[in-house]
């Protein structure tokens, strides 16, 4: 959802320990627009004006059952005694009282734009929550992990997980809850395509020159996905610059549709528009009492705007792929906000108004997706799945310490689509128990958990769903800077830059990291 908004570069070397400061989400611009609001909606995005306003907002946020020893808990008696409306993570007013960790936001509105800065906060390198996992033992980082965390620049929203995340009210997950190997392999496989959509190099070129990349020992972890694919097409939203692409996989007969998460300031603008609006995809024959709010399927207005911007072109691209390759299975995937848009696309593909004849098998796989709509919208989605004349598989993966899955908050009427998501922790996947789909964190007690791997991503976060997504993006940025594939010397230039930046391991992304 927010993953690609860059943070200020750090000066630590590649082999050094990660700094004690955790990067904090700092969206750059918010245009404060709203459309199709619910009647009498209590939540209104602010209107920007030409005047300049400097506002200091002191807000408090909390997590249930928080311990006073939390590394983020440092409240004055004054802040503890006050209960006031707070600004939630999407910038709209949330009247829920909070009590644990306090942070400051300074908002400047000028020339029709709103700039929101959230200050960095320091905390211990390893939190008490980390120590609760795996029998309370905090394992030491490997060299690979230390290098990875030292090079981390993007916000992984661990801070948001600590502020808004909630542990499930259930027994710890064990090896009995593990996802079977066949399913885990399929989900892990699909995730490659959800990651590649962030590429600085067009995916079409990666597919076309996959053999050259394999021979150069670059992006080895993605060689099967790229080498097995036939590029169908890509789309780019005219208004929001949201990107998506479609490929056909020879070996599996899958037509894969991958939708990007947040990668541009325009996307962040839409992320902040958390006002819910009526879902427009209802068939005219379906009766809805639009005067009763609790009977109206509503959706995040920003996510809907992003989806509408690519809907027509993406459906055309999907239709072209089906006509050309006659796939046995249609796969829709997305990471972060892209997962929310993937759900909206799936509802239209499952609906009665679609002119495309989709395959008899459909898979929806999302990674680190936020909540997208209200309970009525989820009921509508489940109804479409039941009426689908084929096989439908749904995989919604939540990662340890990924705060994005905790937003928008339930207090604003949002719920998750998936009733039985998957929890990803240290390269293992676990089925979430029934009734715990809204929880973002789970205790894990698995004696079979393999923490001896070169890199098990012990800190979790938004960009670690089986691979180092940020590392992959750095590699692709390096390829783009080296002139891949046009310049004859792109390979030597790429390795020269990689050695200078100390990023050789990240460039190769060996399959030894595969679970």
TrEMBL record:
The keyword Disulfide bond is assigned to this record: yes
UniProt catalytic activity: a diacylglycerol + H2O = a monoacylglycerol + a fatty acid + H(+); a monoacylglycerol + H2O = glycerol + a fatty acid + H(+)
Chain segments carrying region Disordered: 1-26, 38-91, 121-144
Domain Fungal lipase-type: 256-410
A Pfam entry, by short name: Lipase_3
Family statement drawn from the similarity comment of this UniProt entry: Belongs to the AB hydrolase superfamily. Lipase family. Class 3 subfamily.
Protein name in UniProt: Fungal lipase-type domain-containing protein
Organism: Ephemerocybe angulata
């Amino acid at each position: 959802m927010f993953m690609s908004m860059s943070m200020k570069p750090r000066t630590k070397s590649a082999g050094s320990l990660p700094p004690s400061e955790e990067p904090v989400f700092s969206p750059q611009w918010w245009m404060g627009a709203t459309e199709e609001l619910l009647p009498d909606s209590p939540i209104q995005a602010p209107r920007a004006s030409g005047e300049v306003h400097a506002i200091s907002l002191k807000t408090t946020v909390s997590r249930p059952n928080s311990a006073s020893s939390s590394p983020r808990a440092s409240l004055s008696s004054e802040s503890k005694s006050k209960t006031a409306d707070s600004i939630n993570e999407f910038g709209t007013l949330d009247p829920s009282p909070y009590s644990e960790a306090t942070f400051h936001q300074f908002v400047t509105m000028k020339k029709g734009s709103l700039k929101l800065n959230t200050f960095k906060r320091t905390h211990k390198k390893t939190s008490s929550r980390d120590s609760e996992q795996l029998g309370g033992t905090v394992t030491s980082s490997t060299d690979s992990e230390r290098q990875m965390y030292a090079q981390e620049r993007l916000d992984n929203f661990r801070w948001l997980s600590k502020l808004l995340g909630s542990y499930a009210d259930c027994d710890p997950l064990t090896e009995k809850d593990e996802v079977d190997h066949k399913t885990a392999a399929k989900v892990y496989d699909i995730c490659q395509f959800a990651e590649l959509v962030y590429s600085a190099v067009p995916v079409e070129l990666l597919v076309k020159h996959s053999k050259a990349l394999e021979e150069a020992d670059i992006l080895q972890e993605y060689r099967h996905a790229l080498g097995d694919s036939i590029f169908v097409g890509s789309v780019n939203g005219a208004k929001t610059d949201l990107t998506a692409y479609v490929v056909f996989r020879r070996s599996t007969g899958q037509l894969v549709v991958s939708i990007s998460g947040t990668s541009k300031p325009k996307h962040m603008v839409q992320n902040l528009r958390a006002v819910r609006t009526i879902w427009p995809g209802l068939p005219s024959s379906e009766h809805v009492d639009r005067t009763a709010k609790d009977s109206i399927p509503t959706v995040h207005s920003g996510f809907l705007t992003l989806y509408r911007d690519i809907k027509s072109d993406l459906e055309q691209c999907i239709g072209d792929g089906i006509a050309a390759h006659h796939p046995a299975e249609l796969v829709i995937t997305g990471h972060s906000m892209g997962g929310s848009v993937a759900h909206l696309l799936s509802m239209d593909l499952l609906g009665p108004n679609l002119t495309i004849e989709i395959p008899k098998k459909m898979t929806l796989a999302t990674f680190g997706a936020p909540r997208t709509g209200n309970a009525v919208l989820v009921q509508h989605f489940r109804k479409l799945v039941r009426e689908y004349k084929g096989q439908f598989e749904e995989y919604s993966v939540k990662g340890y310490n990924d705060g994005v899955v905790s937003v928008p908050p339930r207090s604003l009427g949002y719920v998750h689509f998936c009733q039985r998501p998957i929890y990803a922790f240290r390269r293992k996947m676990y089925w979430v128990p029934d009734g715990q789909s809204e929880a973002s964190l789970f205790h894990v007690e698995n004696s079979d958990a393999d923490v001896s791997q070169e890199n098990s991503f012990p800190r979790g976060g938004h960009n670690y769903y089986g691979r180092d997504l940020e590392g992959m993006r750095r590699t692709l940025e390096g390829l783009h800077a080296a002139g891949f594939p046009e310049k004859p010397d792109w390979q030597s230039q790429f390795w020269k830059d990689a050695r200078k930046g100390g990023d050789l391991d990240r460039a190769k992304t060996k399959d030894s990291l595969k679970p």
